[in-house]
Specification:
- There is one protein chain.
- With 385 residues, this protein is an all-beta fold.
- It is built from one helix and 28 strands.
- It has a nine-stranded antiparallel beta sheet with strand order 6-7-8-9-25-21-20-13-18, with no helix packed on it. Strands 5, 11, 12, 14, 15, 19, 22 and 23 form an eight-stranded antiparallel beta sheet that branches. Strands 1-2-3-4 form a four-stranded antiparallel beta sheet, with no helix packed on it.
- The chain is globular.
Length: 385
C-alpha cells in the first residue's frame, strides 16, 4: 500500500482518510464510508466542492440511534437501500443498511500509470457478506470511478448510491435533467408525514412524463417544475425517474451556472434503473434536521423508491409495470455495482442540460440553448466487470 497517496485524519469530527488522485482530493469517513468533502480541480485557482455536509457535523449530537446520520454527507453505498422498517425472515436493517453506517477499513492505495486506485473493505454482520469499495481517479479527469463488489450474500435486496448535493441559494439557480426517461413516479406512500414534523409538496402515487410538470398535493399549483431549483421552502420530497438499459450510460446532470460547474452522474441502467431524487429545503423540522437541512440528492438505485428491503423484494407498483426493484445475490457469485460521479466547468449562460453524447473517452453535455461542454471520462468503466 502506497502511504504517500493518503493520510488518516479528521474532517468535521469524523475520522477517516484523505485520498488524493489526479486533480481530485477526497475525504471518506471510516464510519459509513461516506465521501465528502470532495475537491475537484483541487490544484486550480477555482476548485469545486459539490457535495453536501449536514449542518450538525461540528455540533456532533448523539445520533447512535441511527448511525447513518452521525456524519451524513456526500455519497455512500446503501445495502439495503431505503428505510427498512419491516424485517425479512427475521432480519432487519437500519435505514440504508450497514454499508452506510458500519466501519470500513482502507486496504489498498496504489498508482498504476495515470490511474490512482483505492479500496476499502467491510464485513457485514446482520446478513454476512464481504463488500469491497473501489475508487479510481485519473489524471486529467474530474471524475470519480466507483465500484462496489459484494460476495457471500444470499437472497434479494435493494441497493444504490446516495449522492447528496448542495441546494442552491435563494438568489441562485440550479437546473436538473436526466434526459428522456421511461417512467416518472412519486412514492405510493406518504414520504413526509406531518406527524413526524415533515411536509411534502408532491402528490403521492402519481406518474409524470416531464420533470417540468410533477403533480403536487395542491390544487394551485397543480404541478411543480422539478427541473429548476431551489425547491419550495419548508418541504422535503422524493420521486423517481426510471430508464431501460441502452448501449450508452444513463445520465443525470445538475448545472450550477452561478457556481460555474455541472455535476454529472453516469450509470448502467441494467444495474441501477432508477434515478431517485430526494430534495429537502427545510422540510424536516425534528432533530437533527431542525428545519435547516437544504440539499438535493441524486440517488441511483435499484429499489422501490426509498421504502426499503421488504417492499422492494415483494410485488409493488413498479414491479407490476415490469421494473426491477432489487438485486438477486448469490453467495457463490460476486455482485458488482458501478457508478461514475464528476464535474465539468460551465459558462455562466449554461442552463438546463438537454442531451449527453458519449464519444470515445468523453461525454459532451449540451443545454437547451445549444451551449456545449466536454468532460473527459472513460465511461466504458460502467461496462467492465
Amino acid at each position: 500500500m502506497n502511504e504517500k497517496l493518503f493520510r488518516k485524519g479528521e474532517n468535521h469530527k469524523a475520522q477517516g482518510w484523505y485520498l488524493k488522485g489526479g486533480e481530485i482530493e477526497l475525504f471518506i469517513t471510516e464510519q459509513g464510508g461516506q465521501h465528502a468533502p470532495v475537491t475537484f480541480f483541487a490544484d486550480s485557482e477555482k476548485p469545486v466542492q459539490p457535495y453536501y455536509l449536514t449542518p450538525w457535523q461540528d455540533e456532533h449530537p448523539d445520533l447512535s440511534f441511527l448511525p447513518l446520520l452521525q456524519y451524513l454527507r456526500g455519497d455512500f453505498f446503501c445495502l439495503p437501500f431505503g428505510g427498512n422498517g419491516d424485517p425479512v425472515d427475521g432480519f432487519q436493517y437500519q435505514c440504508h443498511g450497514e454499508t452506510s453506517a458500519a466501519n470500513w477499513t482502507l486496504t489498498s492505495a496504489e498508482e498504476n500509470g495515470d490511474v490512482t486506485i483505492f479500496e476499502l473493505e467491510l464485513d457485514t454482520k446482520i446478513k454476512p457478506a464481504h463488500v469491497v469499495k473501489h475508487y479510481e481517479m485519473r489524471k486529467g479527469e474530474s471524475a470519480i470511478y466507483i465500484r462496489h463488489t459484494v460476495t457471500g450474500l444470499s437472497g434479494k435486496m435493494p441497493y444504490g448510491h446516495h449522492a447528496i448535493m448542495k441546494m442552491p441559494e435563494a438568489n441562485e439557480k440550479m437546473y436538473f435533467s436526466c434526459g428522456k426517461f421511461d417512467l416518472g413516479m412519486t412514492p405510493t406512500s406518504v414520504f413526509s408525514d406531518p406527524a413526524n414534523l415533515e411536509y411534502q409538496y408532491l402528490a403521492s402515487g402519481e406518474e409524470f412524463t416531464s420533470l417540468e410538470a410533477v403533480p403536487t398535493a395542491f390544487k394551485k399549483p397543480a404541478y411543480l417544475d422539478c427541473s429548476v431549483y431551489p425547491y419550495p421552502v419548508g418541504y422535503t420530497d422524493l420521486f423517481a425517474m426510471l430508464k431501460k438499459p441502452s448501449d450508452t450510460p444513463a445520465w443525470a446532470a445538475a448545472s450550477y451556472p452561478d457556481q460555474g460547474y455541472l455535476y454529472f452522474s453516469l450509470k448502467n441502467a441494467e444495474e441501477l434503473p432508477a434515478t431517485t431524487l430526494w430534495v429537502a429545503n427545510g422540510g424536516r423540522h425534528g432533530a437533527p434536521w431542525n428545519s435547516v437541512t437544504r440539499c438535493f440528492a441524486v440517488e441511483e438505485s435499484c429499489s422501490y423508491f426509498a421504502d426499503g428491503w421488504k417492499p422492494s423484494i415483494e410485488e409493488n407498483a413498479l414491479t407490476r409495470k415490469g421494473w426491477k426493484t432489487c438485486g438477486e445475490f448469490s453467495p457463490d457469485k460476486p455482485f458488482t455495482v458501478s457508478a461514475i460521479q464528476g464535474v465539468v466547468r460551465i459558462p455562466a449562460d449554461y442552463g438546463k442540460t438537454a442531451s449527453a453524447v458519449f464519444e470515445d473517452g468523453k461525454v459532451i453535455f449540451t443545454d437547451e440553448a445549444g451551449h456545449s461542454v466536454e468532460a473527459a471520462v472513460h465511461w466504458d468503466f460502467l461496462c467492465k466487470k
